[in-house]
């Protein structure tokens, strides 16, 4: 029996460790990543349509910081592509109105588009009663983007290959972060292209593993240790494209953050703090002295899941 209305959520992510290899023949890059899902969730509300149409809408309650024009409401959107791929794979002829509540910055380096796709797969699988399990949804998700399987999984995980070969880390050890979203986005392909230009002529190894010290620090919730081993190879490219990020990063560390790093391909900055109280102090200082917007989040957070069904 089909449902009439299903709501699903999926988390944004931070890369605590991100090493990038040279460009491959297919244009992608091998990476070694340590993903952590954070408590900032995208939400997709799917309402049944019997005419087979897919209609997308960006909810007015969305708290997006970024460039809304980079979020087209048509076939180029990952929400549309995820629902369409699920229909194609399962043979269903049903449709859906898909209302998207965005909280993860658009083009912000936190996997918001991948979270949208993951939430859509989970919502429509329940709405249409297509019966796919998590493993099958993960395989479909990998066809939409390397970060989609992790958004389905949540928690923390090592990612190899292009980031889609995932090994979950079974930890509940909490880390606290403060996010500084930017008022603009950075195109991920553009950031990678800049990294390739900056490293032109230099020998670049293919990353094979995540630094065990990063894993140890995350698993033990040792914020001080984790701050000392955070790595993101895309930082230099992000700063080359948006030099002001370096200034804000320095201000954040001056305000007491243990470490301020570019999240993924940027331009969102992720500030590691000791605990929630420390995060509140850092946020207050940044708000009072610098006037930047901040968000407090924790990790790990659960992966894509249905939160309402009727």
Describe the structure.
The protein has a single domain, classed as Ribosomal Protein S5, domain 2 (2-Layer Sandwich). It has 10 helices and 12 strands. Strands 1, 2, 3, 4, 5, 6, 8 and 12 form an 8-stranded mixed sheet that branches. Strands 9-10-7-11 form a 4-stranded antiparallel sheet, with helices on both faces. 50% of the residues are buried. It has 310 residues and is an alpha+beta fold.
CATH structural architecture: 2-Layer Sandwich
Main sheet overview = 8 strands, mixed
Q: Could you estimate the helical fraction of the residues in percent?
A: 25-40%
How many strands in all?
12
Query: What is the gyration radius calculated from CA atoms?
Result: 19 Å
In N-to-C order, the SSE pattern is: EEEHEHHHEEEHHHEHHEEHEE
Structural class comes to alpha+beta
Question: Helix tally?
Answer: 10
State the distance separating the first and last CA atoms.
11 Å
The low-pLDDT segments are none
Summarize model confidence as the mean pLDDT.
93
Properties at a glance:
single chain; 310 residues; alpha+beta; Ribosomal Protein S5, domain 2; 8-stranded mixed sheet; 4-stranded antiparallel sheet; 10 helices; 12 strands; 33% helix; 29% strand; globular
List the helices and strands and how they pair.
Layout: E1 5-23, E2 29-49, E3 54-58, H1 78-90, E4 95-101, H2 112-127, H3 134-142, H4 148-153, E5 156-160, E6 165-169, E7 175-180, H5 188-198, H6 212-219, H7 223-229, E8 231-232, H8 235-241, H9 244-254, E9 259-262, E10 269-273, H10 276-290, E11 295-299, E12 305-309
Parallel strand pairs: 1-8, 3-4
Antiparallel strand pairs: 1-2, 1-12, 2-4, 2-5, 5-6, 7-10, 7-11, 9-10
Helix pairs in contact: 1-2, 5-8, 6-7
